[in-house]
Design a protein that fits this description.
The chain is α/β, with parallel strands linked by helices. Helix content is about 50%, strand content about 20%. It is built from 23 helices and 17 strands.
């Protein structure tokens, strides 16, 4: 049996993605000029849990939006008088908590988790049942033993290195869990890398594509509307997610009533619901949640820029900052493999002016053998960087002013200069680099030239689709459509149709294409040139459906328009001719 704390519902749907095939010898196959689309490797994992309430079971879809999952395994937990109090106390520490009485169900649940760190609590008597079964699971970060006879189970500390401690008092257990969660939240870091030798975005490696995604995201998010409606959407989602969590609900209410744009850095540094949800969304590229938080993300970037201006006007020319971390061995190996390349963090990067503090954090003792102690030394040439990378001293806003924290905004880009080993410590030296901004600028200009779409917001959604992220592209454009005031609705509907088209959902795609076409034709003056894109894509759908006569008509109409507005060697004309050839072949 599984008990789950928290009453949440996910708006994310799992949509099976299908990739169109591209060849040259069959009428039902793609044009060789159609963009190559790669299948997305990002699958939103909705997990089912059973929540027991008044002896009635109900099953619902649930998803953890934070970075850690707290699991308690004990077959006898349901019979304890203080169980309900324990549940509530734990949820104040970590919102996502599950309680398991069945060993096999517990292990199955653990195996289903891939994006979060797991903290496991179990009794001393049951530790010998579950720990041998899960000792090799990478998602298990920490184990806590809760029992009445500490001495009896101390031998487990030598057998399992991820056991943090054995506790006979609930308050001591909760304090230890809180300390470990705070530690993990500070350490969790994922990176994106860019190989400067890759010239075409259509041929980017997965890692380089992710790098570009984050560079472009930070550019786009600052240009999305940050109005009262956006704030209400954000707070409503947070209320729904944290329903029943009294601690977080009080903070959300405080945010709703008292938040001002200039408070963004202070709210982020609190490490409350804002900090946790945004960082998890960035790390997992949760486009729905990131769009929901556009209001706050935009404010935070604006505030960091304002503080960055103070650094630019100061006499300081070179800034040295530091960060200590315990990285998973796999993540560290990626760093080693990408020396000399550009790197960005998938989120905000917290550093310190204090070398000693970062060093002590990196050298903090651990029994884990699968982590590497890393000390980052980052040098920033303030004069050279200018406004291309945003970072700021946030002491005056921070809940921990003694840390002398310097926070880097989302677009921060670095070059890995060297990685050296000093006894048990890996020292990574990096230099802040302007190259990330240049790469983003070049990509936007190229994309706008190819598509003649002037909106960067639309270019961003198209990038998601070009990288094979059809689900994310569709959701992003749907959000844009729902909230759009100034954006080009015809292009938005066209791009929703394009994402559906590339997933093989042709009937739904056709509906969006038709709406986009009607809007373009109703425009004053009619957008004849733009409509050729829609006619061409509808022709491709009809060809795949075996409706060759109709398909030929649409491609000929698109070709007629393009021959009037383009030179004879334009790629759009070549695309149309190729598509007609596939029908007549």
């Amino acid at each position: 049996m599984t008990f789950h704390m928290g009453n949440k519902s996910s708006s994310v749907q799992n949509i099976k993605e299908e990739q169109p095939v591209s060849t040259n010898n069959d009428k039902n196959k793609e044009s060789t000029y159609v963009d190559e689309n790669k299948e997305s490797t990002y699958v939103n994992e909705n997990k089912e849990s059973t929540y027991v309430n008044e002896n009635k079971e109900s099953t619902y879809v649930d998803e953890n939006k934070e970075s850690t999952t707290l699991i308690w395994f004990d077959p006898n937990i349901g019979s304890r008088e203080d169980t309900e109090q324990t549940k509530q106390q734990l949820r104040l520490i970590n919102d996502y908590v599950t309680f398991h009485t069945d060993l096999e169900q517990c292990i199955t649940f653990i195996q289903s988790i891939h994006k979060e760190k797991i903290f496991l609590i179990t009794s001393g008597s049951k530790a010998s049942q579950i720990l041998p079964r899960i000792s090799s699971f990478r998602q298990i970060d920490s184990v806590f033993i809760y029992c009445m006879k500490k001495n009896r189970y101390e031998y487990l500390l030598d057998e399992y290195l991820n056991i943090i401690g054995i506790y006979i008092n609930l308050d001591d257990l909760c304090q230890s869990i809180k300390e470990q969660i705070d530690l993990v939240n500070k350490q969790i870091q994922t990176f994106s890398f860019f190989d400067q030798h890759e010239k075409s975005t259509k041929d980017l490696s997965k890692e380089s594509a992710e790098f570009l995604w984050f560079q472009l995201f930070s550019y786009v998010i600052a240009r999305l509307p940050r109005n009262q409606q956006a704030k209400q959407q954000m707070t409503q989602i947070c209320k729904e997610y944290y329903r029943g969590n009294t601690k977080e609900m009080k903070l959300i209410q405080d945010f709703e009533l008292n938040y001002r744009s200039e408070d963004a850095i202070r709210w982020y540094s609190k490490q409350s619901f804002v900090y946790r949800l945004i960082n998890k969304a960035l790390r997992t590229e949760d486009i729905d949640l990131l769009y929901t938080f556009r209001f706050f993300i935009g404010d935070l970037s604006e505030n960091l820029q304002r503080q960055h201006e103070k650094l630019l006007s100061s006499k300081e020319k070179i800034l040295n900052v530091y960060r200590g971390a315990k990285l998973d061995k796999e993540e560290f190996d990626k760093l080693k493999e990408n020396q000399g390349k550009l790197i960005s963090t998938n989120g905000y990067l917290s550093t310190s002016r204090l070398k000693s503090g970062a060093l002590s954090f990196a050298l903090k003792p651990t029994k884990r053998v699968d982590v590497v102690a890393v000390f980052f030394h980052i040098q920033c040439d303030i004069t050279k960087i200018g406004k291309n990378i945003i970072f700021a001293d946030i002491n005056q806003f921070s809940a921990y002013p003694d840390e002398q924290e310097v926070l880097f905004d989302l677009n921060a880009c670095f070059e890995i200069e060297s990685i050296e080993e000093n006894e048990s410590l890996q020292i990574v030296k990096m230099n802040a680099s302007n190259e990330g901004r240049k790469i983003t600028k070049d990509f936007i200009e190229l994309a706008q030239k190819e598509t003649e779409e002037l909106s960067v917001s639309i270019v961003f959604g198209r990038l998601l689709c070009d990288l094979g992220e059809y689900d994310k592209s569709q959701k992003y454009f749907q959000q844009l459509l729902n909230d759009s005031n100034d954006e080009d609705r015809a292009w938005i509907e066209f791009n929703i149709g394009r994402a559906l088209d590339l997933k093989g959902e042709w009937n739904e795609a056709r509906e969006y294409y038709d709406r986009a076409y009607d809007q373009m034709m109703q425009n004053e003056p009619a957008r004849i040139k733009d409509s050729a894109h829609i006619l061409n894509n509808i022709g491709n759908i009809l060809r795949r459906q075996g409706k060759y006569t109709e398909a030929l008509d649409y491609h000929q109409r698109a070709l007629e328009i393009r021959e009037k507005v383009h030179s004879s060697c334009h790629i759009d004309i070549a695309t149309n001719l190729n598509n007609i050839g596939l029908i007549l072949d």
